[in-house]
Design brief:
eight-stranded mixed sheet, elongated, alpha/beta, five-stranded parallel sheet
Amino acid sequence: MPADLAVIGLGHLGLPLAQAAVAAGIETIGYDPDPRRLTDPAAGVTAADVRRMLSAGFRTVTDRAELGRVRTAVICAPTPPGPDGAPDLTALADAARALASRLRPHTTVLLESAVQPGTTDEFLRPLLEQGSGLRAGRDFHLAYSPSRTDPGNRAHGYANTPKVIGGLTPACTESAAAFYSRLTDKVVRARGLREAETVKVLETNFRHVNMALVNEMAVLCHGLGIDLWDVIRCAETKPFGFQAFRPGPGVGGHGVPLDPGHLPPTGRTLRMVGLAQDINTRMPQYVIQRSATLLNEHGKSARGARVLLLGVTYKPDLADLTGSPATEIARRLMDLGASVSYHDPYIPDWRVNELPVPRADSLYEAAANADLTVLLQHHRTYDLQGLAVKAQLLLDTRGATPAGAAHRL
């Protein structure tokens, strides 16, 4: 059965897109060699959501022949950082070859995966052209659109988040605009592929650089005896020239810093991005340092201390452990000889160093028995005021507890 749209890659990018397309009444298929992605916790698409999508006509396929019967194909292949820090394009190449083998004239091909500037034209385009015998910009449309999905965000969904697009040619841009206008209220046209790709670079690095700034401010203010959380509260009242970011125990998730310097022809790097990454990756160690100091101040050593970690996902109210700083924090505590347990309503089992970490069944009882409780992620289900009363010692790395109720990062 033909479909209007094929979403290639049903991970944290593809599933929300497929969900939005099905909701908009677009006949959609999802292509992924690994159908288990339908349960990817990073997508923020629940099992109930998937059932509703399937009942509305959504189909998952593993036969690439199905890709030759669609009008639009969106590649949402994962591009995790490789050993050198640059995006690993292996899955993207596999997706491109699968599509190219069935690509028909007049198809619109869109890329949403996080990539470096130039990837769509210099990497994806040759794979599509060689595998299909067709020419991009003449026989089929090719464009890039940076993904802006934010799983768990109740205020900004697909429809009310503007979509940036940039095509190989003006006609490619317009074809992409025609598709995305069916999903979102506003389409923003970039000048071309590289400009659209660089939007993702800027947006991702903006987040990391500003998080690094407030993380450094947290360390500085603690040393000076200044309440950074109160500083941020006051600063964010400024109606211009400021956007509030808050410190935390580290940076996780899928939005890794993107440095165009990974592309050999550029010969340039974003020095601030590298510095921000260094700062953010040091935050788990700072949490350990603060934890050990708090224990010492209360007459206890880290060795043998019972430490309860609250919230081990990288994002609140989402069952995704990708890049979560909790893993490194737990590992370092174990290395110090601490007895580590955890509580997270979204993670029933958790392993660190290939070893299972004990999960607390009774949250308040576990907090009362622990020498130190560390809030790493603020899930909505946590009653932090009640926890602050029950816990012997509470370190809040998210600034979520009432003022004076806990030690803040």
